[in-house]
């Protein structure tokens, strides 16, 4: 455990990130524009941040990027620890 915040999340005292989906999202990006990818998973409409993390996962920030260096899917979602984890709302699809 790397921080008191992480300990509070693990103990259930503080809301943390959730898995929004086990599949990648397609998104249209605008060349040269800065985008903010949602790292908390709480936003209903993924994959971009709308500020929901401020209420549901305080301390987390979106991953900001320009189209030259986006967080493209690297197939991490296919790994067992993701596929066996519960999704947001405990629905596993
Ligand atoms: S809404 Fe998820 S990081 Fe902002």
From TrEMBL:
Transmembrane segments: none annotated. GO terms for molecular function: 2 iron, 2 sulfur cluster binding; metal ion binding. The lineage of its organism: Eukaryota, Metazoa, Chordata, Craniata, Vertebrata. Its cofactor is [2Fe-2S] cluster. The keyword Metal-binding applies. Residues 22-59 form the Iron-binding zinc finger CDGSH type domain. PANTHER family: CDGSH IRON SULFUR DOMAIN PROTEIN HOMOLOG, CDGSH IRON-SULFUR DOMAIN-CONTAINING PROTEIN 3, MITOCHONDRIAL. This is Iron-binding zinc finger CDGSH type domain-containing protein. Keywords: 2Fe-2S, Iron, Iron-sulfur, Metal-binding. GO terms for cellular component: mitochondrion.
């Amino acid at each position: 455990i790397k921080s008191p915040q992480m300990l509070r999340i693990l103990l259930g005292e503080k809301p943390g990130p959730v898995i929004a989906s086990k599949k990648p999202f397609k998104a249209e990006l605008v060349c040269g524009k800065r985008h903010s990818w949602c790292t908390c998973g709480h936003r209903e409409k993924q994959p971009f941040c709308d500020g929901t993390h401020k209420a549901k996962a305080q301390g987390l920030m979106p991953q900001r990027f320009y189209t030259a260096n986006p967080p493209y899917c690297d197939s991490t979602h296919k790994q067992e620890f993701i596929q066996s984890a519960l999704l947001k709302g405990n629905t596993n699809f």
